[in-house]
Write a structure and sequence with these properties.
It is built from 7 helices and 7 strands; from the N terminus they run ααααβαααββββββ. It is of the alpha+beta class.
Length: about 375
């Protein structure tokens, strides 16, 4: 049963880890060389899942930022497109006014041309001839003044229209510059939005990949737990109904989530070792603080290949042997963590009555009658 924290390691890619699992025979159900590999593999997978979940959470936050940026860019694009559409409409209106002004200029030039033609024809006559053809001097003067007046009006009209046309052309030129600038801004915003969309798509792809890794790892953990439960199958018994969650175990530890707090001896709550440590201390005997080296097998066995300490009881001078007595703590070396049980009594046929926690990873109390074979007993 797990009961101590493990430091974070570098995230191992899921494919590589699956290959490791396959090599160890996890995926195919082959036997495992050492029981502690349950522990090592489950904890490695848990570390991967914690790191992957942290990455998924960070990616989700980034995705929110990307989506916010995309929405903001879209608002800017929409506003700029509305302004661009208005300017394009104004541009078309100015062009129409310029065309109308040009038509008026062309018409006035035509009138002027006709007037000049008339004056030219009239100009073929000498002053003496014009006077001779006029009814009187006043008629000659009126005709001359009329021609001059008409010419002046046409000339003024052409100049006014030309000035208006020049003004309109300048406005259109300025508007053309603004429209081109807005089009460039729109293109830039579109490019920025596309980049954010690409980042969002990549981000979401990463989230999917990490979630798949978490799912694969969770499946592997479930398989390892199944194998651990199989190793503990001989100890699994009926549910108990003792006071305080069973076996007298305090409510402050048994009525909260498993592995959420440490007990007085450095063990995680609702684990087998926490319960047996409590039972020893509750009987008035000395229970050492074995937090950090508290896997059940470490209490009475050694696993040299793990590089981790063992034989806690022997090293503390507490007797350990294969002969069960009431009040002993029975230790199994099976599975990744081993298992600890409290010996309630010894039967005449050699079997023992035990109470325990977390045999099946449920964190619950149970009792059973089992054979003492293969177990070691710590006489606290």
């Amino acid at each position: 049963m797990p009961k101590q924290k493990f430091s974070k390691t570098v995230l191992i890619r899921v494919r590589a880890f699956i290959l490791v699992l396959a090599a160890l025979g996890i995926a195919g159900g082959a036997s495992i060389a050492h029981a502690d590999q349950f522990d090592e593999q489950i904890n490695a997978l848990r570390v991967q899942n914690n790191d992957a979940q942290s990455l998924v959470n960070n990616l989700a936050n980034q995705a929110g930022s990307y989506q916010g940026a995309i929405n903001q860019l879209q608002a800017q694009i929409s506003a700029l497109q509305a302004a661009l559409n208005a300017n394009l409409a104004q541009q078309a209106s100015l062009q129409q006014q310029i065309n109308e002004a040009q038509a008026k200029i062309d018409q006035q030039k035509k009138f002027l041309g006709e007037d000049i033609k008339t004056m030219y024809i009239d100009g073929q006559l000498s002053t003496i001839e014009e006077l001779a053809t006029s009814k009187n001097l006043s008629d000659y003067v009126d005709r001359e003044e009329y021609r001059t007046t008409v010419q002046n009006k046409i000339d003024i009209g052409i100049k006014q229209i030309a000035a208006l046309q020049a003004q309109l052309q300048k406005q259109k030129a300025d508007l053309d510059v603004l429209v081109n600038s807005q089009k460039q801004q729109n293109d830039q915003l579109g490019a920025a939005q596309y980049q954010q969309q690409q980042l969002l798509a990549y981000n979401e792809g990463q989230q999917v990949a990490y979630n798949q890794q978490i799912s694969v790892n969770s499946g592997a953990i479930a398989e390892l737990r199944r194998q651990q439960i199989a190793a503990n199958s001989r100890f699994i018994g009926g549910a108990g109904n003792g006071a305080a969650c069973g076996g007298g175990y305090p409510a402050k530890w048994c009525e909260i989530d498993k592995d959420s707090v440490l007990d007085n001896w450095g063990m995680y709550n609702r684990e087998c070792v926490s319960y047996t440590a409590f039972r020893v201390a509750a009987s008035g005997r000395y229970m050492p603080y074995w937090g950090g080296v508290g896997d059940a097998w470490q209490w009475a066995f050694e696993r040299p290949w793990t590089g981790r300490p063992g034989n806690n009881a022997q090293n503390a001078g507490i007797p350990v042997d294969d002969n069960p007595q009431a009040g002993d703590v029975a230790i199994s070396n099976s599975g990744g963590w081993g298992h600890s049980m409290y010996v309630e009594s010894v039967n005449s046929n050699g079997t023992i009555n035990i109470s325990q926690y977390n045999t099946d990873f449920s964190g619950r109390y149970s009792t059973n009658t089992i054979s003492p074979g293969g177990l070691r007993f710590i006489h606290f």
